[in-house]
Protein: 15-hydroxyprostaglandin dehydrogenase [NAD(+)]
Organism: Salvator merianae
Amino acid sequence: MHLKDKVALITGAAQGIGRAFAQALLEKGCKVALVDLNVEVGEASKSAFDKEFGTQRSIFIACDVSNEENLKDAFKKADQHFGKLDIVVNNAGVNNEKNWEITVQINLISVIRGTYIGLEYMKNKNKCSEGAIVNVASLAGLIPAAFQPVYCASKHGVIGFTRSIAMFSAAENYGVRINAICPGFVNTPILQSIEKEENMGLYSSHKQDIKDMMEFYGVLDPSLIAEGLIKILEDDTLNGEIMKITTNQGIHFQEYSPLPFQSRKL
Ligand SMILES: NC(=O)c1ccc[n+]([C@@H]2O[C@H](COP(=O)([O-])OP(=O)(O)OC[C@H]3O[C@@H](n4cnc5c(N)ncnc54)[C@H](O)[C@@H]3O)[C@@H](O)[C@H]2O)c1
């Protein structure tokens, strides 16, 4: 996909990885809808982007992705504002083991919903001839995480869903590629959640263990995750792929055995 003049909707774009995604897409000539719950930080990011790229290139849309109507409205606003949608990045996420239902709601259910809504806007039967959806999972979607079991489950869910729906999208010739990104630890505000009892609950006493893991694996810069996003978007051959980003191997892909019933490259 050539990114110039494409329109992207990014959830959780006010800060952290989502903001880095927005920056990278704006640099490539895209228009971006920044969707986030955090109005103050989201509007500040939009103002900073206005100074660098001009006021017409981005829009901030306040939205709680865990609210179905809110999420549908955000897609509608972005589509109406820019006239189309080409790229959806389901990135908003939380780390909350205490109020764990919220973690499943935001990290998994809203990603599923964002994918379904994105497909409605972008599949061939609609007005666009090509589209891309990228779901943000985590390395915790591929390996166990002893002190974040629900976060881990939510991200495993994102990977299973993404690989499966990508096969369906290909089978239906929707013209929408769907992939996921799994970063290791990334230097964003979410890392502060491990310090908080209201986020960690039962696992609070293990925050040092998580810090030790960060020390061991290292912490990535959000700009590298954005580089991974651009790679997925620009390579039209990728569908149903799970990109991993780590300090020691950089950007690479999870390898899976071919499925016995897989009749074509999906
Ligand atoms: N930082 C890491 O170490 C790391 C590693 C792997 C994966 N991830 C994933 O990357 C994604 C982005 O995380 P981040 O590190 O940038 O975290 P972050 O906390 O810096 O940013 C998350 C953004 O999502 C927004 N958000 C949260 N709940 C929302 C909701 N209900 N509706 C709308 N917006 C909401 C927040 O306001 C925030 O702007 C998440 O899915 C996270 O799980 C992060």
